[in-house]
Design brief:
With 92 residues, the protein is mainly α. Helix content is 76%, strand content 0%. Helix 1 packs across helix 2 and helix 1 crosses helix 3.
Length: 92
C-alpha cells in the first residue's frame, strides 16, 4: 500500500495558509457579530461574500505587518501539513 503525502511546495503552502486565514477571519467575524446582536447567527451567503471581499483586500496588503501576518499563516500551514503527513506515515 502506498502512502501519499501532502506536498510542501510553495503553492500548496500558500493555498493552505489562505484557507487558515480565511477560516479564522470568518470565525472571528461571526463571533463578533453574535456578541454585538446578542443571539446566535447562521451563516448566510451575503455575509460570507462580504467577508470574502474583505479577506482578499487584507491578504493582498503589502505593508510590513501584512507580510508578517502572511508569514505566520504560512508557518501554520507548514505545521498543519507536517502533522497530517506524520499521521499518514504512522498509520500506514
Amino acid at each position: 500500500m502506498n502512502t501519499y503525502l501532502i506536498p510542501t511546495d510553495e503553492n500548496t503552502i500558500e493555498s493552505v495558509a489562505r484557507s487558515i486565514a480565511l477560516s479564522r477571519l470568518q470565525y472571528d467575524a461571526f463571533e463578533s457579530l453574535q456578541e454585538m446582536v446578542g443571539k446566535k447567527l447562521t451563516s448566510s451567503d451575503s455575509l460570507e461574500n462580504v467577508i470574502d471581499i474583505l479577506f482578499e483586500q487584507l491578504w493582498n496588503g503589502n505593508t510590513e505587518h501584512d507580510m508578517r501576518q502572511k508569514e505566520r499563516y504560512r508557518g501554520d500551514a507548514i505545521a498543519a501539513i507536517r502533522a497530517i503527513n506524520l499521521k499518514l506515515i504512522t498509520t500506514a
